[in-house]
Amino acid sequence: MAQRTWFITGVSSGFGRQLTEQLLQRRDRVIGTVRDTGKVADLRERYHETFHAELLDHTDTAAIHEVVERSFSELGRIDVIISNAGYG
Question: What is the pLDDT of residues 41-51, one digit of tens each?
Answer without folding.
Answer: 999 999 999 99
